[in-house]
Design goal:
The complex is a heterodimer of chains A (about 350) and B (about 260). With about 350 residues, chain A is mostly helical. Chain A has a single domain, classed as ABC transporter involved in vitamin B12 uptake, BtuC, CATH 1.10.3470.10. Helices cover about 80% and strands about 0% of the residues of chain A. In chain A, strands 1-2 form a two-stranded antiparallel ribbon. In chain A, a hairpin with a 2-residue loop joins strand 1 and strand 2. The two termini of chain A are about 40 Å apart. Chain B is an alpha/beta fold. Chain B has a domain of about 140 residues: P-loop containing nucleotide triphosphate hydrolases (Rossmann fold, 3-Layer(aba) Sandwich). Chain B is about 35% helix and about 25% strand. Chain B has ten helices and eleven strands. In chain B, the strands form three sheets. Chain B has a six-stranded mixed sheet with strand order 5-6-7-3-8-9, with helices on both faces. In chain B, strands 2-1-4 form a three-stranded antiparallel sheet. In chain B, strand 8 and strand 9 form a beta hairpin. Classes of the chains: A mainly alpha (about 350), B alpha/beta (about 260). Chains A and B meet through helix 1, helix 8 and helix 9 of A and helix 3, strand 5, helix 4 and helix 5 of B.
Chain lengths: ~350, ~260
Protein backbone atom coordinates (compact mmCIF):
# COMPACT_ATOMS: atom_id res chain seq x y z
CA UNK A 1 0.00 0.00 0.00
CA UNK A 2 2.87 2.34 0.84
CA UNK A 3 4.42 1.64 -2.56
CA UNK A 4 1.20 2.73 -4.27
CA UNK A 5 1.05 5.92 -2.23
CA UNK A 6 4.71 6.58 -3.04
CA UNK A 7 3.93 6.26 -6.74
CA UNK A 8 1.15 8.81 -6.48
CA UNK A 9 3.34 11.25 -4.59
CA UNK A 10 6.02 11.11 -7.26
CA UNK A 11 3.46 11.48 -10.03
CA UNK A 12 1.96 14.82 -9.05
CA UNK A 13 5.02 16.90 -9.92
CA UNK A 14 5.23 15.01 -13.21
CA UNK A 15 1.73 16.05 -14.24
CA UNK A 16 2.77 19.59 -13.31
CA UNK A 17 5.83 19.15 -15.51
CA UNK A 18 3.65 19.19 -18.63
CA UNK A 19 2.13 22.53 -17.70
CA UNK A 20 5.56 23.82 -16.76
CA UNK A 21 6.99 22.76 -20.12
CA UNK A 22 4.19 24.52 -21.97
CA UNK A 23 4.75 27.65 -19.90
CA UNK A 24 8.52 27.52 -20.48
CA UNK A 25 8.07 27.10 -24.24
CA UNK A 26 5.59 29.99 -24.18
CA UNK A 27 8.16 32.14 -22.40
CA UNK A 28 10.74 31.23 -25.05
CA UNK A 29 8.30 32.18 -27.81
CA UNK A 30 7.47 35.48 -26.11
CA UNK A 31 11.13 36.30 -25.52
CA UNK A 32 11.96 35.44 -29.13
CA UNK A 33 9.11 37.56 -30.42
CA UNK A 34 10.07 40.60 -28.36
CA UNK A 35 13.77 40.27 -29.15
CA UNK A 36 13.00 39.96 -32.85
CA UNK A 37 10.79 43.04 -32.65
CA UNK A 38 13.41 45.19 -30.97
CA UNK A 39 16.55 44.03 -32.80
CA UNK A 40 17.44 44.78 -36.40
CA UNK A 41 18.85 47.50 -38.62
CA UNK A 42 17.26 50.05 -36.30
CA UNK A 43 17.54 48.89 -32.70
CA UNK A 44 14.49 49.77 -30.66
CA UNK A 45 14.42 49.51 -26.89
CA UNK A 46 12.04 47.05 -25.28
CA UNK A 47 10.15 50.00 -23.78
CA UNK A 48 9.67 51.58 -27.22
CA UNK A 49 8.52 48.23 -28.58
CA UNK A 50 5.94 47.79 -25.83
CA UNK A 51 4.55 51.34 -25.93
CA UNK A 52 4.40 51.32 -29.73
CA UNK A 53 2.69 47.93 -29.73
CA UNK A 54 0.08 48.99 -27.22
CA UNK A 55 -0.48 52.25 -29.11
CA UNK A 56 -0.85 50.30 -32.34
CA UNK A 57 -3.31 47.90 -30.75
CA UNK A 58 -5.42 50.61 -29.13
CA UNK A 59 -5.56 52.60 -32.38
CA UNK A 60 -3.64 55.59 -30.99
CA UNK A 61 -0.72 55.18 -33.30
CA UNK A 62 -0.18 58.93 -33.81
CA UNK A 63 0.72 59.37 -30.12
CA UNK A 64 4.07 57.56 -30.57
CA UNK A 65 7.14 58.17 -32.73
CA UNK A 66 6.10 57.80 -36.37
CA UNK A 67 9.42 56.25 -37.48
CA UNK A 68 9.36 53.60 -34.79
CA UNK A 69 5.70 52.93 -35.47
CA UNK A 70 6.37 52.45 -39.19
CA UNK A 71 9.29 50.07 -38.60
CA UNK A 72 7.56 48.14 -35.88
CA UNK A 73 3.94 47.96 -36.94
CA UNK A 74 4.29 47.87 -40.73
CA UNK A 75 7.53 45.96 -41.24
CA UNK A 76 8.70 43.99 -38.20
CA UNK A 77 5.45 42.99 -36.55
CA UNK A 78 3.99 41.14 -39.56
CA UNK A 79 7.34 39.48 -40.15
CA UNK A 80 7.78 38.37 -36.55
CA UNK A 81 4.17 37.21 -36.40
CA UNK A 82 4.67 35.20 -39.58
CA UNK A 83 7.86 33.68 -38.17
CA UNK A 84 6.02 32.67 -34.99
CA UNK A 85 3.08 31.30 -36.97
CA UNK A 86 5.22 29.38 -39.46
CA UNK A 87 7.39 27.97 -36.67
CA UNK A 88 4.41 26.89 -34.59
CA UNK A 89 2.69 25.43 -37.62
CA UNK A 90 5.70 23.45 -38.83
CA UNK A 91 6.43 22.16 -35.33
CA UNK A 92 2.87 21.03 -34.66
CA UNK A 93 2.58 19.52 -38.17
CA UNK A 94 5.90 17.77 -37.62
CA UNK A 95 4.75 16.35 -34.28
CA UNK A 96 1.46 15.12 -35.81
CA UNK A 97 3.35 13.66 -38.79
CA UNK A 98 5.68 11.79 -36.41
CA UNK A 99 2.69 10.45 -34.49
CA UNK A 100 0.97 9.39 -37.71
CA UNK A 101 4.08 7.68 -39.09
CA UNK A 102 4.89 6.34 -35.60
CA UNK A 103 8.41 7.59 -36.21
CA UNK A 104 10.21 10.43 -34.42
CA UNK A 105 12.39 11.17 -37.45
CA UNK A 106 9.59 12.23 -39.81
CA UNK A 107 9.88 15.90 -40.76
CA UNK A 108 7.67 17.64 -43.32
CA UNK A 109 10.82 18.78 -45.15
CA UNK A 110 12.47 15.35 -45.16
CA UNK A 111 9.59 13.14 -46.22
CA UNK A 112 8.53 15.29 -49.16
CA UNK A 113 5.46 17.06 -47.78
CA UNK A 114 7.15 20.43 -48.14
CA UNK A 115 8.43 19.67 -51.65
CA UNK A 116 4.92 18.74 -52.74
CA UNK A 117 3.54 21.94 -51.26
CA UNK A 118 6.38 23.88 -52.87
CA UNK A 119 5.61 22.45 -56.29
CA UNK A 120 1.99 23.50 -55.89
CA UNK A 121 3.03 27.00 -54.91
CA UNK A 122 5.66 27.36 -57.64
CA UNK A 123 3.13 26.34 -60.27
CA UNK A 124 0.96 29.21 -59.13
CA UNK A 125 3.83 31.71 -59.14
CA UNK A 126 4.86 30.79 -62.68
CA UNK A 127 1.60 29.79 -64.32
CA UNK A 128 -0.61 32.06 -62.23
CA UNK A 129 0.08 35.03 -64.51
CA UNK A 130 -1.84 33.26 -67.26
CA UNK A 131 -4.79 32.79 -64.94
CA UNK A 132 -4.58 36.29 -63.49
CA UNK A 133 -6.58 38.08 -66.21
CA UNK A 134 -9.56 35.76 -65.79
CA UNK A 135 -9.56 35.34 -62.02
CA UNK A 136 -10.53 38.06 -59.53
CA UNK A 137 -7.67 39.45 -57.45
CA UNK A 138 -9.09 38.23 -54.12
CA UNK A 139 -9.14 34.65 -55.37
CA UNK A 140 -5.62 34.92 -56.75
CA UNK A 141 -4.30 35.80 -53.30
CA UNK A 142 -5.62 32.56 -51.87
CA UNK A 143 -4.47 30.54 -54.84
CA UNK A 144 -0.95 30.16 -53.48
CA UNK A 145 -1.86 28.54 -50.14
CA UNK A 146 -4.58 26.44 -51.78
CA UNK A 147 -2.15 25.09 -54.39
CA UNK A 148 0.45 24.48 -51.67
CA UNK A 149 -2.20 22.65 -49.62
CA UNK A 150 -3.16 20.42 -52.56
CA UNK A 151 0.50 19.68 -53.32
CA UNK A 152 1.17 18.94 -49.66
CA UNK A 153 -1.88 16.69 -49.31
CA UNK A 154 -0.99 14.65 -52.39
CA UNK A 155 2.59 14.12 -51.25
CA UNK A 156 1.64 13.30 -47.63
CA UNK A 157 -0.87 10.75 -48.87
CA UNK A 158 1.67 9.27 -51.31
CA UNK A 159 4.44 8.97 -48.72
CA UNK A 160 2.04 7.45 -46.22
CA UNK A 161 0.64 4.90 -48.67
CA UNK A 162 4.05 3.92 -49.98
CA UNK A 163 5.89 3.64 -46.68
CA UNK A 164 3.18 2.21 -44.42
CA UNK A 165 2.17 -1.40 -44.82
CA UNK A 166 -0.35 -2.84 -42.36
CA UNK A 167 0.18 -0.01 -39.92
CA UNK A 168 3.94 -0.27 -39.83
CA UNK A 169 6.02 2.49 -41.38
CA UNK A 170 9.33 1.56 -42.85
CA UNK A 171 11.69 4.41 -42.18
CA UNK A 172 13.85 3.57 -45.19
CA UNK A 173 10.85 3.70 -47.54
CA UNK A 174 9.61 6.87 -45.88
CA UNK A 175 12.88 8.73 -46.35
CA UNK A 176 13.47 7.30 -49.85
CA UNK A 177 9.97 8.35 -50.89
CA UNK A 178 10.85 11.81 -49.60
CA UNK A 179 13.98 11.83 -51.75
CA UNK A 180 12.06 10.63 -54.82
CA UNK A 181 9.38 13.25 -54.29
CA UNK A 182 12.00 15.96 -53.83
CA UNK A 183 13.70 14.87 -57.08
CA UNK A 184 10.40 14.79 -58.95
CA UNK A 185 9.27 18.17 -57.71
CA UNK A 186 12.78 19.49 -58.35
CA UNK A 187 12.56 18.38 -61.97
CA UNK A 188 9.13 19.89 -62.41
CA UNK A 189 10.32 23.09 -60.76
CA UNK A 190 13.16 23.07 -63.29
CA UNK A 191 10.68 22.89 -66.15
CA UNK A 192 8.70 25.74 -64.64
CA UNK A 193 11.91 27.74 -64.27
CA UNK A 194 12.34 27.64 -68.07
CA UNK A 195 8.87 29.04 -68.47
CA UNK A 196 9.33 31.82 -65.96
CA UNK A 197 10.27 35.45 -66.50
CA UNK A 198 13.28 37.12 -64.89
CA UNK A 199 11.16 38.63 -62.15
CA UNK A 200 9.53 35.28 -61.37
CA UNK A 201 12.93 33.60 -61.42
CA UNK A 202 14.23 35.88 -58.69
CA UNK A 203 11.13 35.23 -56.64
CA UNK A 204 11.48 31.47 -57.15
CA UNK A 205 15.14 31.31 -56.21
CA UNK A 206 14.84 33.16 -52.95
CA UNK A 207 11.59 31.45 -52.14
CA UNK A 208 12.94 27.95 -52.68
CA UNK A 209 15.63 28.66 -50.07
CA UNK A 210 12.98 29.82 -47.65
CA UNK A 211 12.57 33.25 -46.15
CA UNK A 212 10.23 35.75 -44.64
CA UNK A 213 11.63 38.95 -46.18
CA UNK A 214 8.42 39.53 -48.11
CA UNK A 215 6.26 39.43 -44.99
CA UNK A 216 3.17 41.65 -45.07
CA UNK A 217 -0.02 41.88 -43.08
CA UNK A 218 -1.75 40.52 -46.13
CA UNK A 219 0.26 37.29 -45.95
CA UNK A 220 -0.58 36.97 -42.25
CA UNK A 221 -4.27 37.23 -43.10
CA UNK A 222 -4.06 34.77 -46.00
CA UNK A 223 -2.05 32.13 -44.12
CA UNK A 224 -3.96 32.17 -40.84
CA UNK A 225 -7.10 30.29 -41.97
CA UNK A 226 -4.94 27.49 -43.39
CA UNK A 227 -2.84 27.21 -40.26
CA UNK A 228 -5.77 27.35 -37.86
CA UNK A 229 -6.94 23.73 -38.48
CA UNK A 230 -3.63 22.30 -37.28
CA UNK A 231 -3.93 24.17 -33.97
CA UNK A 232 -7.65 23.53 -33.57
CA UNK A 233 -7.38 19.82 -34.37
CA UNK A 234 -4.31 19.24 -32.20
CA UNK A 235 -6.18 18.83 -28.87
CA UNK A 236 -8.54 16.31 -30.48
CA UNK A 237 -5.76 14.38 -32.17
CA UNK A 238 -3.52 14.26 -29.09
CA UNK A 239 -5.04 11.30 -27.27
CA UNK A 240 -5.54 9.37 -30.52
CA UNK A 241 -1.87 9.87 -31.41
CA UNK A 242 -0.85 8.58 -27.95
CA UNK A 243 -2.82 5.40 -28.58
CA UNK A 244 -1.53 5.12 -32.15
CA UNK A 245 1.99 4.84 -30.70
CA UNK A 246 1.00 1.31 -29.60
CA UNK A 247 0.10 0.29 -33.15
CA UNK A 248 -3.06 0.52 -35.22
CA UNK A 249 -4.82 -2.56 -33.81
CA UNK A 250 -4.08 -1.51 -30.24
CA UNK A 251 -5.27 2.04 -30.98
CA UNK A 252 -8.52 0.57 -32.26
CA UNK A 253 -8.85 -1.59 -29.13
CA UNK A 254 -8.41 1.61 -27.11
CA UNK A 255 -11.30 3.27 -28.89
CA UNK A 256 -9.61 5.18 -31.72
CA UNK A 257 -11.32 5.48 -35.09
CA UNK A 258 -8.04 4.82 -36.81
CA UNK A 259 -9.00 5.56 -40.42
CA UNK A 260 -10.72 8.83 -39.52
CA UNK A 261 -7.81 9.97 -37.39
CA UNK A 262 -5.33 9.20 -40.16
CA UNK A 263 -7.36 11.13 -42.74
CA UNK A 264 -7.80 14.14 -40.46
CA UNK A 265 -4.10 14.08 -39.59
CA UNK A 266 -3.06 14.03 -43.25
CA UNK A 267 -5.39 16.93 -44.14
CA UNK A 268 -4.29 18.99 -41.14
CA UNK A 269 -0.61 18.42 -41.89
CA UNK A 270 -1.11 19.32 -45.54
CA UNK A 271 -3.00 22.52 -44.70
CA UNK A 272 -0.46 23.56 -42.08
CA UNK A 273 2.65 22.78 -44.11
CA UNK A 274 1.02 24.18 -47.26
CA UNK A 275 0.25 27.46 -45.53
CA UNK A 276 3.74 27.65 -44.05
CA UNK A 277 5.39 26.89 -47.40
CA UNK A 278 3.20 29.38 -49.24
CA UNK A 279 4.38 32.29 -47.05
CA UNK A 280 7.95 31.29 -46.25
CA UNK A 281 9.12 28.77 -48.84
CA UNK A 282 10.81 25.59 -47.69
CA UNK A 283 12.02 25.93 -44.12
CA UNK A 284 13.23 22.56 -42.92
CA UNK A 285 13.95 20.84 -39.61
CA UNK A 286 11.76 23.00 -37.33
CA UNK A 287 9.21 20.18 -37.39
CA UNK A 288 11.92 17.75 -36.34
CA UNK A 289 13.87 19.74 -33.75
CA UNK A 290 11.07 21.33 -31.72
CA UNK A 291 9.06 18.13 -31.01
CA UNK A 292 12.25 16.21 -30.30
CA UNK A 293 13.44 18.69 -27.68
CA UNK A 294 10.04 18.64 -26.00
CA UNK A 295 10.02 14.81 -25.95
CA UNK A 296 13.43 14.83 -24.32
CA UNK A 297 12.21 17.21 -21.62
CA UNK A 298 8.76 15.87 -20.76
CA UNK A 299 8.23 12.62 -22.65
CA UNK A 300 6.19 11.75 -25.72
CA UNK A 301 2.61 12.33 -24.46
CA UNK A 302 0.93 14.36 -27.21
CA UNK A 303 -1.28 16.41 -24.90
CA UNK A 304 1.82 18.23 -23.71
CA UNK A 305 3.92 17.64 -26.80
CA UNK A 306 1.66 19.35 -29.34
CA UNK A 307 1.18 22.71 -27.57
CA UNK A 308 4.72 22.81 -26.17
CA UNK A 309 6.29 21.97 -29.53
CA UNK A 310 4.14 24.60 -31.25
CA UNK A 311 5.35 27.29 -28.84
CA UNK A 312 8.95 26.12 -28.97
CA UNK A 313 8.86 25.97 -32.78
CA UNK A 314 7.48 29.51 -32.85
CA UNK A 315 10.31 30.71 -30.62
CA UNK A 316 13.01 28.83 -32.53
CA UNK A 317 11.87 30.15 -35.88
CA UNK A 318 11.58 33.74 -34.62
CA UNK A 319 15.18 33.49 -33.38
CA UNK A 320 16.29 31.86 -36.64
CA UNK A 321 14.65 34.61 -38.66
CA UNK A 322 16.27 37.24 -36.45
CA UNK A 323 19.63 35.60 -37.16
CA UNK A 324 18.82 35.44 -40.89
CA UNK A 325 18.24 39.18 -41.12
CA UNK A 326 20.98 40.41 -38.76
CA UNK A 327 24.05 38.16 -39.21
CA UNK A 328 25.06 39.51 -42.62
CA UNK A 329 23.20 42.86 -42.37
CA UNK A 330 22.43 44.84 -44.43
CA UNK A 331 22.10 41.74 -46.63
CA UNK A 332 19.93 38.82 -45.55
CA UNK A 333 20.47 35.06 -45.33
CA UNK A 334 17.65 32.84 -46.54
CA UNK A 335 15.85 31.46 -43.49
CA UNK A 336 15.88 27.91 -44.88
CA UNK A 337 19.67 28.01 -44.87
CA UNK A 338 19.79 29.08 -41.22
CA UNK A 339 17.44 26.30 -40.10
CA UNK A 340 19.29 23.73 -42.20
CA UNK A 341 22.64 24.80 -40.69
CA UNK A 342 21.25 24.02 -37.24
CA UNK A 343 18.79 21.26 -38.11
CA UNK A 344 20.84 19.06 -40.43
CA UNK A 345 23.63 18.35 -37.90
CA UNK A 346 20.89 17.73 -35.33
CA UNK A 347 19.28 15.19 -37.65
CA UNK A 348 22.65 13.50 -38.26
CA UNK A 349 23.16 13.32 -34.50
CA UNK A 350 19.75 11.66 -34.09
CA UNK A 351 20.60 9.16 -36.84
CA UNK A 352 23.90 8.35 -35.16
CA UNK A 353 22.20 7.87 -31.81
CA UNK A 354 19.55 5.59 -33.28
CA UNK A 355 21.95 3.53 -35.35
CA UNK A 356 24.08 2.97 -32.24
CA UNK A 357 20.99 1.85 -30.36
CA UNK A 358 20.21 -0.45 -33.29
CA UNK A 359 16.79 1.01 -34.00
CA UNK A 360 17.36 2.48 -37.44
CA UNK B 1 -31.91 -4.69 -24.43
CA UNK B 2 -28.20 -5.32 -24.68
CA UNK B 3 -26.94 -8.86 -24.68
CA UNK B 4 -24.64 -9.66 -21.77
CA UNK B 5 -22.73 -12.46 -23.48
CA UNK B 6 -20.59 -12.65 -26.57
CA UNK B 7 -21.91 -15.24 -28.97
CA UNK B 8 -20.43 -16.26 -32.30
CA UNK B 9 -22.53 -18.53 -34.53
CA UNK B 10 -21.22 -20.31 -37.60
CA UNK B 11 -18.40 -17.79 -38.04
CA UNK B 12 -16.45 -18.21 -41.25
CA UNK B 13 -13.32 -16.36 -42.25
CA UNK B 14 -11.44 -16.93 -45.49
CA UNK B 15 -7.87 -15.69 -45.80
CA UNK B 16 -5.98 -16.18 -49.04
CA UNK B 17 -8.65 -18.56 -50.38
CA UNK B 18 -8.32 -20.87 -47.37
CA UNK B 19 -11.12 -21.11 -44.81
CA UNK B 20 -9.27 -20.34 -41.58
CA UNK B 21 -12.53 -20.43 -39.64
CA UNK B 22 -15.17 -22.75 -41.03
CA UNK B 23 -18.35 -22.41 -39.00
CA UNK B 24 -17.21 -21.69 -35.46
CA UNK B 25 -19.68 -21.46 -32.56
CA UNK B 26 -18.37 -19.82 -29.42
CA UNK B 27 -19.91 -18.05 -26.48
CA UNK B 28 -18.34 -16.14 -23.60
CA UNK B 29 -20.45 -15.19 -20.61
CA UNK B 30 -19.48 -12.65 -17.99
CA UNK B 31 -17.84 -14.30 -15.00
CA UNK B 32 -16.20 -17.19 -16.84
CA UNK B 33 -12.71 -17.82 -18.15
CA UNK B 34 -12.91 -19.38 -21.59
CA UNK B 35 -9.55 -20.61 -22.85
CA UNK B 36 -9.05 -21.19 -26.54
CA UNK B 37 -6.54 -23.89 -27.46
CA UNK B 38 -5.42 -25.14 -30.82
CA UNK B 39 -2.36 -25.78 -32.97
CA UNK B 40 -0.51 -23.01 -34.78
CA UNK B 41 -2.66 -21.74 -37.62
CA UNK B 42 -5.86 -23.20 -36.17
CA UNK B 43 -7.48 -19.76 -36.38
CA UNK B 44 -7.38 -18.77 -32.71
CA UNK B 45 -6.06 -15.25 -33.28
CA UNK B 46 -8.35 -14.76 -36.26
CA UNK B 47 -11.31 -15.69 -34.08
CA UNK B 48 -10.14 -13.32 -31.34
CA UNK B 49 -9.87 -10.49 -33.92
CA UNK B 50 -13.47 -11.10 -34.98
CA UNK B 51 -14.71 -11.26 -31.37
CA UNK B 52 -12.85 -8.04 -30.54
CA UNK B 53 -14.58 -6.23 -33.41
CA UNK B 54 -11.33 -5.61 -35.24
CA UNK B 55 -12.32 -7.59 -38.31
CA UNK B 56 -15.64 -8.79 -39.68
CA UNK B 57 -16.46 -12.43 -40.38
CA UNK B 58 -16.99 -13.54 -44.00
CA UNK B 59 -19.97 -15.58 -42.89
CA UNK B 60 -21.98 -16.35 -39.79
CA UNK B 61 -23.02 -14.00 -37.05
CA UNK B 62 -21.44 -12.40 -34.01
CA UNK B 63 -23.72 -11.01 -31.31
CA UNK B 64 -23.16 -9.37 -27.97
CA UNK B 65 -22.10 -6.05 -26.52
CA UNK B 66 -19.02 -5.63 -28.72
CA UNK B 67 -20.91 -6.30 -31.93
CA UNK B 68 -23.68 -3.95 -30.80
CA UNK B 69 -21.33 -1.07 -29.93
CA UNK B 70 -21.71 1.88 -32.28
CA UNK B 71 -18.04 2.73 -32.71
CA UNK B 72 -14.50 2.03 -31.55
CA UNK B 73 -14.87 4.23 -28.47
CA UNK B 74 -18.01 2.38 -27.36
CA UNK B 75 -16.29 -0.99 -27.92
CA UNK B 76 -13.40 0.15 -25.71
CA UNK B 77 -15.93 0.50 -22.88
CA UNK B 78 -17.06 -3.12 -23.04
CA UNK B 79 -13.93 -5.03 -23.95
CA UNK B 80 -10.17 -4.75 -23.54
CA UNK B 81 -7.59 -6.65 -25.57
CA UNK B 82 -4.07 -7.76 -24.71
CA UNK B 83 -2.17 -8.41 -27.94
CA UNK B 84 0.65 -10.90 -28.45
CA UNK B 85 3.24 -8.16 -28.75
CA UNK B 86 3.35 -4.39 -29.01
CA UNK B 87 5.93 -2.26 -30.74
CA UNK B 88 5.93 1.10 -29.01
CA UNK B 89 6.83 4.03 -31.29
CA UNK B 90 7.76 6.53 -28.58
CA UNK B 91 9.40 6.19 -25.13
CA UNK B 92 6.28 6.26 -22.95
CA UNK B 93 6.49 5.28 -19.28
CA UNK B 94 4.67 2.24 -17.92
CA UNK B 95 2.23 4.47 -16.07
CA UNK B 96 1.41 6.49 -19.19
CA UNK B 97 0.64 3.30 -21.12
CA UNK B 98 -1.57 1.88 -18.37
CA UNK B 99 -3.36 5.21 -18.09
CA UNK B 100 -4.30 5.06 -21.80
CA UNK B 101 -6.19 1.90 -20.89
CA UNK B 102 -7.96 3.47 -17.90
CA UNK B 103 -8.98 6.49 -20.00
CA UNK B 104 -10.25 4.29 -22.84
CA UNK B 105 -12.38 2.36 -20.37
CA UNK B 106 -13.99 5.62 -19.27
CA UNK B 107 -12.07 6.74 -16.17
CA UNK B 108 -10.34 10.09 -15.68
CA UNK B 109 -8.52 12.21 -13.14
CA UNK B 110 -7.43 10.78 -9.79
CA UNK B 111 -9.72 7.77 -10.13
CA UNK B 112 -7.83 6.74 -13.26
CA UNK B 113 -4.49 7.23 -11.47
CA UNK B 114 -5.62 4.91 -8.68
CA UNK B 115 -6.80 2.25 -11.16
CA UNK B 116 -3.40 2.40 -12.86
CA UNK B 117 -1.41 2.01 -9.65
CA UNK B 118 -3.63 -0.92 -8.62
CA UNK B 119 -3.30 -2.60 -12.03
CA UNK B 120 0.48 -2.20 -12.03
CA UNK B 121 0.77 -3.76 -8.61
CA UNK B 122 -1.61 -6.57 -9.67
CA UNK B 123 0.82 -7.61 -12.41
CA UNK B 124 3.78 -7.35 -10.02
CA UNK B 125 5.07 -4.03 -11.33
CA UNK B 126 4.33 -1.73 -8.38
CA UNK B 127 6.94 1.02 -8.39
CA UNK B 128 7.67 0.58 -12.12
CA UNK B 129 5.28 3.40 -13.12
CA UNK B 130 7.95 5.92 -14.00
CA UNK B 131 10.14 3.47 -15.93
CA UNK B 132 10.19 3.78 -19.72
CA UNK B 133 8.55 0.71 -21.26
CA UNK B 134 11.45 0.52 -23.74
CA UNK B 135 13.84 -0.02 -20.82
CA UNK B 136 11.89 -3.00 -19.45
CA UNK B 137 12.45 -6.66 -20.29
CA UNK B 138 10.12 -8.39 -22.74
CA UNK B 139 8.20 -10.08 -19.94
CA UNK B 140 7.86 -6.87 -17.95
CA UNK B 141 6.66 -4.97 -21.03
CA UNK B 142 4.06 -7.67 -21.66
CA UNK B 143 2.81 -7.30 -18.10
CA UNK B 144 2.55 -3.52 -18.61
CA UNK B 145 0.13 -4.17 -21.46
CA UNK B 146 -1.75 -6.67 -19.30
CA UNK B 147 -2.02 -3.96 -16.63
CA UNK B 148 -3.28 -1.57 -19.30
CA UNK B 149 -6.11 -3.95 -20.19
CA UNK B 150 -6.94 -4.59 -16.52
CA UNK B 151 -7.13 -0.85 -15.85
CA UNK B 152 -9.34 -0.48 -18.94
CA UNK B 153 -11.72 -3.23 -17.78
CA UNK B 154 -11.94 -1.86 -14.24
CA UNK B 155 -12.66 1.64 -15.61
CA UNK B 156 -15.61 0.45 -17.67
CA UNK B 157 -18.91 1.99 -16.60
CA UNK B 158 -21.27 -0.96 -17.14
CA UNK B 159 -21.51 -4.49 -15.73
CA UNK B 160 -20.91 -6.07 -19.16
CA UNK B 161 -17.14 -6.26 -19.48
CA UNK B 162 -14.86 -8.55 -21.42
CA UNK B 163 -11.13 -9.14 -21.37
CA UNK B 164 -9.57 -10.77 -24.45
CA UNK B 165 -6.05 -12.11 -24.11
CA UNK B 166 -3.95 -13.31 -27.04
CA UNK B 167 -1.19 -15.47 -25.59
CA UNK B 168 -0.68 -13.36 -22.49
CA UNK B 169 1.94 -15.73 -21.09
CA UNK B 170 4.10 -15.93 -24.22
CA UNK B 171 7.23 -14.28 -22.79
CA UNK B 172 6.64 -14.81 -19.09
CA UNK B 173 8.50 -17.00 -16.61
CA UNK B 174 6.68 -19.68 -14.62
CA UNK B 175 5.98 -17.42 -11.67
CA UNK B 176 4.38 -14.77 -13.84
CA UNK B 177 2.51 -17.31 -15.96
CA UNK B 178 0.79 -18.40 -12.78
CA UNK B 179 0.21 -14.75 -11.86
CA UNK B 180 -1.59 -14.21 -15.16
CA UNK B 181 -3.72 -17.32 -14.64
CA UNK B 182 -4.72 -16.17 -11.16
CA UNK B 183 -5.45 -12.68 -12.48
CA UNK B 184 -7.70 -14.10 -15.18
CA UNK B 185 -9.64 -16.07 -12.55
CA UNK B 186 -9.81 -13.02 -10.32
CA UNK B 187 -11.13 -10.82 -13.14
CA UNK B 188 -13.82 -13.44 -13.77
CA UNK B 189 -14.75 -13.32 -10.09
CA UNK B 190 -15.09 -9.55 -10.47
CA UNK B 191 -17.72 -10.28 -13.13
CA UNK B 192 -15.59 -9.94 -16.23
CA UNK B 193 -15.92 -12.37 -19.13
CA UNK B 194 -12.41 -13.56 -19.99
CA UNK B 195 -11.39 -15.15 -23.29
CA UNK B 196 -7.75 -16.20 -23.50
CA UNK B 197 -5.64 -17.95 -26.08
CA UNK B 198 -3.06 -20.15 -24.37
CA UNK B 199 -0.54 -22.53 -25.88
CA UNK B 200 0.39 -24.33 -22.71
CA UNK B 201 -2.28 -26.97 -22.21
CA UNK B 202 -1.47 -27.31 -18.51
CA UNK B 203 -1.85 -23.57 -17.92
CA UNK B 204 -5.02 -23.67 -20.00
CA UNK B 205 -6.51 -26.38 -17.75
CA UNK B 206 -5.52 -24.40 -14.68
CA UNK B 207 -7.01 -21.13 -15.94
CA UNK B 208 -10.16 -22.26 -17.71
CA UNK B 209 -13.63 -22.58 -16.34
CA UNK B 210 -14.36 -23.71 -19.87
CA UNK B 211 -11.97 -24.92 -22.54
CA UNK B 212 -12.64 -24.58 -26.27
CA UNK B 213 -10.44 -26.51 -28.70
CA UNK B 214 -10.08 -25.39 -32.33
CA UNK B 215 -8.85 -27.64 -35.11
CA UNK B 216 -9.14 -27.20 -38.87
CA UNK B 217 -11.23 -24.05 -38.44
CA UNK B 218 -13.87 -25.73 -36.27
CA UNK B 219 -14.59 -26.20 -32.59
CA UNK B 220 -13.77 -29.83 -31.78
CA UNK B 221 -14.41 -29.70 -28.04
CA UNK B 222 -16.10 -27.29 -25.66
CA UNK B 223 -16.42 -27.96 -21.94
CA UNK B 224 -14.63 -28.00 -18.62
CA UNK B 225 -10.99 -29.21 -18.75
CA UNK B 226 -11.90 -32.29 -16.74
CA UNK B 227 -14.62 -33.27 -19.20
CA UNK B 228 -12.86 -32.74 -22.47
CA UNK B 229 -9.09 -33.14 -22.11
CA UNK B 230 -8.14 -36.72 -22.95
CA UNK B 231 -5.65 -38.57 -25.15
CA UNK B 232 -7.95 -38.37 -28.14
CA UNK B 233 -8.39 -34.60 -27.90
CA UNK B 234 -4.64 -33.98 -27.62
CA UNK B 235 -4.06 -36.09 -30.71
CA UNK B 236 -6.89 -34.40 -32.59
CA UNK B 237 -5.73 -30.87 -31.73
CA UNK B 238 -1.95 -31.13 -31.68
CA UNK B 239 -1.35 -34.35 -33.65
CA UNK B 240 0.73 -35.69 -30.75
CA UNK B 241 0.21 -39.03 -29.07
CA UNK B 242 0.61 -38.92 -25.32
CA UNK B 243 -1.19 -40.01 -22.20
CA UNK B 244 -3.05 -37.38 -20.22
CA UNK B 245 -2.43 -37.59 -16.48
CA UNK B 246 -4.54 -36.31 -13.63
CA UNK B 247 -3.23 -34.09 -10.91
CA UNK B 248 -4.33 -34.61 -7.28
CA UNK B 249 -6.82 -31.75 -7.86
CA UNK B 250 -8.29 -33.95 -10.63
CA UNK B 251 -7.17 -31.42 -13.23
CA UNK B 252 -5.80 -33.08 -16.34
CA UNK B 253 -2.16 -32.47 -17.29
CA UNK B 254 0.16 -33.53 -20.05
CA UNK B 255 3.89 -34.16 -19.94
CA UNK B 256 5.69 -33.52 -23.23
CA UNK B 257 8.24 -36.15 -22.10
CA UNK B 258 5.51 -38.78 -22.46
CA UNK B 259 5.05 -38.14 -26.19
CA UNK B 260 5.33 -41.26 -28.29
Amino acid sequence: MTAVAGDGARRLPRLGRGALAIAACGAIALAAGLTALSAGAANLSLGTVLTTLSAGMSGTRDTVDAGAAAILLDIRLPRVLLALMVGACLAVSGAILQGLFRNPLADPGLVGVSSGAALGAISVIVLGVHAAPILPEALMRHFLPIAAFVGGAISTFLVYRLSTVAGRTSMATMLLTGIALAALTGAMTGILTYLSTDQQLRELTFWSMGGLSGATWDKVRVALPFMAPAFCAAPFLASALDRLALGESEAFHLGVRVQTVKRVAILVIAAGVGAAVSVSGIVGFVGLVAPHLVRLAVGPGHRTLLPAAALLGAGLLAFADLAARTIVAPAELPLGIVTALIGAPFFLYLLLQRSRAGIL
Amino acid sequence: MTASAISACGVRRIIGGRPVLDGVDLSVETGEVVVLIGANGAGKSTLLKIISGESAPDGGHVGGPVAEARNAAAMARVRAVVPQSVELAFPFTAFEIVRLGAESGGAGGRAADRLCDAALSDVGLAGYGDRKVSSLSGGEAQRVHLARAIAQVRAMPGPTRFLLLDEPTASLDLCHQLLVVRLARRMAEEGVGVLAILHDINLACLAATRLVALADGRVVADGSPREIVDDALIERVYAVQLAVGHAPSHLPFVLPQAAG
